[in-house]
Amino acid sequence: MQTRKLSDKFSILAHQGQPEDTPWMELALQQARLAAQAGEVPIGAVVVIDGKAVARAHNAPVSLNDACAHAEIQAIRQACQAVGNYRLGAQATLYVTLQPCLMCIGAILHARLGRVVVGCAQSRYNGDLKQSLSVFEQAQAWHPCVFETDCMGQESEELLGNFFKARRKQREETVAELASLMHLPNANKQTIDVLAQLGFHTPHDFLQTGLQQASERLAEHSRVLKAGQHTQQAAILASLCDYFNGEPVRSWKQYL
């Protein structure tokens, strides 16, 4: 077993495939599939205490209009209500299909869960787990918590990959139907000039480049424009990144 003991508080273990964990992670995967069906990023979570699932939940930020409605937060809230205590204790285990973000790690530590079993631990989705935990190392208030990674990780990663692939495919079909770049959300004449400088003259140019790569180029140029005080066009390009990634697009002013 690969063990990374970060401090007296936190350790990261490579999951050894304990058979008792598989059914709980499968429940979390079921929740993740429900999230995908609802158009949410497919992440599911289950809280188990004394061999019983006291909470199960999935991602719901879009449907609830709640930036905090991650699967882990939803499950922890349910579990706290179920046991009648905002501290779940060291006997509680959280199963989650994707490694938690910083916000969710904070909630895990506040709830004093003793163990977290993670499905997919790919850093490209939520950053490096070790680096995320290092943010909390200096505080004395946290109780010990063990993180175990890669329990049914392949299944979790495939679910995420298929979801984003399908979403990009849907957006590609939408872009292919655009008559011109002026039909892009929030775009104006100056935006068209900026896109032309980046080599994007028609909707087909984005499809040829690939929406994911195009989005990365727009994000990079948005940062350049923002640094140069071209805030409106920087915000518009940021909104187009959401558009090409299949995300809901807001008014450009909300990207300032």
Tell me what the CATH architecture of the largest domain is: 3-Layer(aba) Sandwich
Judging from the principal axes of the Cα atoms, what is the shape? Answer: elongated
Strand order within the widest beta sheet: 1-2-7-6-5-3-4
Number of E-state strands: 7
CATH topology of the largest domain: Cytidine Deaminase, domain 2
Topology (elements, then pairings):
Blueprint lengths: L2 E3 L4 E5 L7 H16 L6 E6 L2 E7 L2 H4 L6 H13 L8 E7 L3 H9 L4 E6 L2 H4 L2 H6 L10 E5 L3 H24 L12 H9 L5 H7 L1 H17 L3 H14 L12
Parallel strand pairs: 2-7, 5-6, 6-7
Antiparallel strand pairs: 1-2, 3-4, 3-5
Task: Please provide a written account of the structure.
The chain has 256 residues and is an alpha/beta fold. The chain is elongated, with a radius of gyration of 21 Å. 48% of the residues lie in helices and 15% in strands. It has two domains: 12-162, Cytidine Deaminase, domain 2 (3-Layer(aba) Sandwich), CATH 3.40.140.10; 178-254, no CATH class. The relative contact order is 0.11. The chain has eleven helices and seven strands. Helix 9 packs across helix 10 (211-227).
